[in-house]
Amino acid sequence: MDSPANSDLPSIYHFPDVYDAVLRASPAQVEAEVEAIAGLLERRGITRGHILEIGCGTGAHGILLAQRGFSVTGMDRSDAMLAGAARQAEKAGVPLTLARADWTDFTLDTGPLDAAIFMFETFPLITEYEDLVSHFASVRRHVRPGGLYIVDVDAHRRGVGTECGTFGERTVAIPGGWV
Q: Which residues have C-beta within 8 Å of that of residue 21, sequence separation ≥ 6?
């Protein structure tokens, strides 16, 4: 999947400050989401550790999680958004490791992660079955057994979730394992 942010045609992903002003959720919503993420992790016994923020944009969630003591790797397809995340992290005085990678098929040099998050309702942009399979296989390669993968699908309509649950329970074979 090629990134529109790195094509010849400019998009909002070329302008991190504009993105933050126009598309990013309010600071209150981001804080509520981070509080929910931290609560979900804590219930799994994860109070410190390494988190991957997929589609990190300018790092809104990752910066707040780093301020809570987590080590955070932010991953995005857009060089401009990663540069924006680096500026925001420096401004906040927290370290973020940043990586340019495709959301659907990635290999990062991180070691096992305690959790991965995919926020700002970006996950539904992965629309092809093969890309979904590849995405889940990539996440599985990186998140340790017992780790957690948190996906924001529709926070605006449903609100910020604070519970883990299972729905539509089904096991699907993917290359190298199961989802």
A: none
Angle between helices 79-92 and 60-67 (to 10 degrees): 30
Radius of gyration of the chain (CA): 16
For the stretch 130-162, pLDDT in tens is 888 888 899 999 999 888 988 877 655 555 555
Q: Estimate the share of the chain in helix, then strand, then coil, as percent rounded to the nearest 5.
A: 40, 20, 40
- Phi/psi for 50 (5° steps) reads -110, 125
Pairing of strands 113-118, 71-76: unpaired
Closest alpha carbon to 94 in 118, 62, 120, 126? 62
C-alpha span between 38 and 43 (Å, rounded)? 9
